[in-house]
Batch of 3 targets.
Target 1
Amino acid sequence: MGTAVRNAFVLTLAGGLPKYAFADTTSQKTERSMPITADFDIVIASGTIYDGTAADPYRADIGIRGDKLVAIGRITGKAAKIIDAQGLTITPGFIDVHTHCDMTFQEAGMGRYLAYVLPSFKGNYNYLYQGVTTVVTGNCGFGYVDTNYWLDLVDAMRFGTNVYHLAPHGMIREALFGTEQKSGYSRKEIEALKNKVAEEMQKGTLGFSTGLAYAPGLLTKKEEIIEIAKVVRKYGGIYTTHIRDESGQRYADGTIGVVEAINEAIDIGRRAEIPVEISHIKIDAPINSVKASQILEPIEKARAEGLDIHADQYPYDAGSTRITILLPNGFVTSTGIKDMYKTKEGRKEVKAAIEQVFTYLPPEKTLITMYLGKPSYEGQTIKEIAESEGKSPSGCYVDLVCEGKAPFGVFFSQNMDIVRDLMPHDYIITGSDGWTVPKGLTKPHPRVYGTFPKKLRQFVLQEKRMGLKEAFISMTSLPAKKFNMQGRGRITEGHYADIAVIDLNTITDHATYTNPHQYAVGVVHLLVNGVLALENGKATGERGGRALRRS
């Protein structure tokens, strides 16, 4: 590139685009100095491009034709639509590898058909407004056991984001063997599990997931997982896991729950020779002074030995799932508690168990978020509900878990300093652990609306816990590479046109625990497979998402 071009240049685009003059620097270079005269469907002009890699940002135009990004440089050809990105930042669309968007449809029952009429539902707006263009479902061992059924539904409603799927080990186990699970299965039963997972891999899943802290996954022996993982490896798949224990509890032998669970995931990956993703890495209560370094050390050691292992993380100090997660394993089913604990004597056992939990996670630390049976409870803590009902907190909890499906809650069980310490490492991927949420329904965790903007605003731009380039990598090329998503995660010619145009001055989340239904702001324009899903910060109603399969 010549000196004159390197120091300054004037870009002029045909088709009515105004002229812009700007200086360049060594970290902001044009992709090309020669003009591109071809015509395009869309041109994104004059933005600063973070291409999703470790390369320095640069200023250039992007030419899009159909669903592909086909040119980067100084474009002088015509375009049917020109997006002025001067002063704005261009990145690949964000990829959220840990969502439960599929479970929204499962939990909603017949209500899932509202997706055909509610724009925010079928558009997956809570993710689009964050800049997310691709989500992965089937996490934590939950989700649709028939990949084709789910992905056909995605295409039928023309969903707002791209969707990949994982084979959910827990639900496959339950589908094959019923709700009364065993810890060990016969050789014939193990072969049935392996065959079913292989069938889903043939349908295009990215890999398989386990939820080892949940029924039915919690009964699974490590050897069973290794055998399934070896099958998945043959298809080039990945193993993702909600590990067996995420807490800092100390066992009688002095070992720490979360550390032992991470070591189990590492051992599975090593013995099956399969890539591993640890889901929503954290240290849950009781924390017992366990530090981030103690759970990162075995991961870093395994990586140094050559194991392909990463973790994903959301930037909050509260988690969310069914409130039965607070009970010991023997009490729970996949949707509530066992019938034997709904009797008079059984309820006493549940009450005694939760009172033990309340010693380190008091009832004011659990907020009910989704309870279809009693929506008036949503947005209230167990303590608040108990006071309004004239019950003890433990008695209130027993009632909540004994009535049909147990509600979902938010648990303020983490330490934000640990969240900060886990975040900036180059093997930590950004992931929400969120759901597709129709605007105004239930009281979800704010991460379903704010994960990606919150991380950028609070932890990157304000607190500077990590660099902007590194944060974008954790949201784009790193998850794409880890999960083998071809043609996504980078700004490069030939890739699909999943592109976010962001105003770094305004990017932020607005969702709170008490008022979660607030869209993030700062993603000015968003394209999904070349379709303009957000324009000038507002959803267009156009949907470009696709059901995607491992290639």
Target 2
Amino acid sequence: MTSIPLRLRLLAGAGLIAGSAILAALLAAWGSAETARLIGEDTAAQTRLDLLAQVSARVGDYALVAVDSGAGGLPPAERAGRLDARAVVVRDAFDALGTAYAGSVAEAETMGRMVQMRRATRGIGLARMRANFEALARATPELPDIEALRASLDGFARLFAPLLNEAIESERRESARAAAALDVLRSRMQALAIVVSLVAAALLALYHQALVRPLLARLDRVSRAAEAVGRGGFDQTPPVDRRDELGLVFAQINRMAARLGRGRRALERDRADLAATVAERTAALTAANARLEAVDAERRRFFADVGHELRTPLTVILAETDLAARAGALTEAEFREALGVIGARARRLNRRIDDLLRVARSESGQIELDDAPFDLGRATEDAVADVATLVRRAKVRVDAHLASAATARGDRDWSRQVIAGLIENATRHSYEGGVILIALGSRDGMLTLSVTDEGGGVPPDQQGRVFERHVRGRTTGLGFGVGLALARWIMERQGGRIDLISPAPNGRGTLVTLRFVEAGE
């Protein structure tokens, strides 16, 4: 036994076990295929029985409609219409049954010519049943009275019922044959499984006793030697007792142990050098991290400082504007109008500063939005009122359709600011005398608010970037480039979205649509 190489012995034993497994797999595959085929035949027969039942039921419905129509004295045109409608249902049932028969014949191509011919003959009975019905369907509308109708139906039943019963009995025999064959196959598969299991168990026992058990004993000696080497005992190596593959492995382990002994000392020297290198790199990484944090802090302080430095003079300007407006002058109306323009510009700049600050805070999650129901129509009306002065001075008109009651879920104040910003953008892009259309509706389970202007639209090469921060269009007066970015951020945080189409469906201008989550969804 020792003269045979270990590899050949392992291959021989593995081949026997693999052969048993392959044989079992082939038997299982064959049994599964046969089982699936027989189950399929049984299921198909049951399906055809259901279709035959449907044909019988549809024909019965047709007869009932014919009797009701004849007894009810309906006009010929109405009677023919009702019968034609029921005839279509019966023909559909015949078509479904014919399709099932055709599929059954196609499946029998691999089962022998006799089976295929037997299944094909069922189509003859179907054709005869359908012909009888078509004759009934042609004659029924023309029958003069109820007695003639009943006589026609009785004649049809005498011809149709035997054909239907014969078809049903044929399908029942087909189902019974499949079930009987399935029982025989199950018994054979059980017997084969027992035989294969016994053979596999015998081969496995022989394989273990002749090869695996001696091999495990030798490997146990290797394991003890490897454990000793792992503890640092490089001189405790396994004995080379046989000149086979495992004996060569023992020799390689012995040489490896010797090399490990020599390398251990070098490793201890390298470990000290590595510790120093890791400490140096860690210090460098910590310093780089501190620099990055400082840069980020400087950037955030920059946003905060810009907002603070611009807000302070704006507050003074707004206060002085209000005081001047109340003071009065010789040309009071013109003076108030000029001050109103100054105030509107200052408030507009103030809102843009808020946009910058909010965009900066949004990156660190400092903005907290409410999550509560609110009246979207009322919020839209408030937004229209916020920009009324700007709209009036631009000589455009806002046409708002807000009749529908709509309760959205989210932050009412932020949503109002988003809507006001969209109307302001539409005002800047509209021509004098133009109309800004605002429409409230619903689509795909969400509330929609659309703002459409009649301006020049957004160039195609900029439509994909208008929602990015600090991106401005080529048209002047687009603001600081943060309004639409902030709007998209707010809508997404509320579970909604914002979309832009340019040109709008009317062929010009821009359509911006806000989608809100409806309260209660």
Target 3
Amino acid sequence: MNLGLHLFKTEQPHQRPFALADGIVLVALAILVYGGLRLGLRAPSRVLASEISLSPAALPWYAGLSLARMVAAYILSLLFSLAYGYVAAYHRRAELILLPVLDVLQSVPILSFLPVVLLGLSAVLSEGIAAELASIVLIFTSQAWNLTFSWYQSLTTIPAELREVSISFGFSRGLRFRTLELPFAAIGLIWNSMMSWAGGWFFLMAAETFSVGARDFRLPGLGAYLQEAARRGDIRAILWGLGTLVLVIVVLDQLVWRPLLAWGARFKLEMVEGERPPSSWFYQAVRRARLPAWLSRSVVKPAMTRLERGVSRRNSIAGPPRGKKNSGRLLPFLGLLAGCGLVYGSYRALVMLFLVSPNRWREVATGLAFTLLRVIAALGIAMAWTIPAGVLVGSKARLSAWAQPVVQILASVPATALFPVFVMLLVRLPGGLNLAAVLLMLMGTQWYVLFNVVSGVSAIPQDLKYTSALLQLRPWDRWRTLFLPALFPYLITGAITASGGAWNASIIAEYVQLGDKTVHTPGIGSLIAQATAGGDYPLLLAATLSLVFAVVLINRLIWRRLYRLAEGRYRLE
């Protein structure tokens, strides 16, 4: 008996060709990057530089500063993801623009954002405010995209019968969001939140220390501490910094993530409870305490009720809005202004691109090819081990209890702090730097796949697992009819964010500073890093846009089609 035929829809999704919206997105991105670079040219010659103390006594203060930036970036990421993914999932016309934009943003390397964000902000704000805002925004760029993809994937795979029930009972948008959409997506959002934090820690060094030409940017924090320790080759300070980071991760796991997993288990779509549902001593202590219950009863629930009534009241107002005619006349005018802006911005960006010599363009094309091969290698290795490991961890509650914090620690340790050591060991071997580049890409991407696989296995209803056991399916039949179909949407989410992470990590993987010596290997990331360090803005624009175009093309032709397949054929219902 083919169990999979009874669990998943089999209709084929409609495939959309490469749309004009993708071209508009690329043009708009070129204009934004160009505008940021023009602002950067007028920025002060020295943005902000703080002396970083390597004394262990400074670590508590540095850890607090980094944690505050991470919290601010995560709140911004979560709000962005909920709004962006909701619009993309429910408005097909908006989706034509929003998904290509998301493909672009999650694939643009963080060091390509750095000059635009940092120098652009420093041109209009004071040094301290610009540096802090830039750091938060850059951490946001390493946290937001996988959350948005997870939320979008959950919204597009909600079982049709649950939607029909919410419509039949006349749920308002707010009530449907609170009682259907958010609970259905809860497990995926929690696991991807852990991945977002791991990604934020991974790129913390790049978000707190950076230089563009003669401009120097440093903020006190754990990332700056590890960067300074690595630059000086102080192994003792590196160990102190990594020990502090591990301690922070363990505390967050016990006080935040494990309680959230225990709380989120209630939203699992199943008829029977699992043998060993996730548990947390802190969650049980909070449940027994009176203050959280009083806050939920007296503050949170009344506020949510008023919010839902307000939304429902606005939705029930009869008749067209008073300003509908004026807005109908205003929209073409705004569209004309936007079109003029696109034309002028495209012209200015093209002028800068014409400054790039043909030899440089050939280097860009060659670099894209080399980096693409490394991305494919890293993603293939990652999926080869994370799929079986993720199924094992997600299926065994006892194993998950101790493996989860270990995986979080491994995913959060900034590989950039240890990467110079690997480079020194491998650089003398034939193709050593290529091997080292693939290794760093793997360290920055494999966790996206693993966390999504564990999330997908955790969301499989326990009654389906019992059914497959009662049918006495052989291991391969169980994989073919239960695990792989159920995991398919999560695998696509993990793979698309992992590939974006691999492109993102190419900059620090292909261009490495070993003390006073710089080693690099051909690749688009190496070109972007060289252009950034040398202040070669035309080359930076050309390399970044070429990378983005290649990634959007791949996502459109491969990943987006697989997303449609997951939405249409492998929806659990």
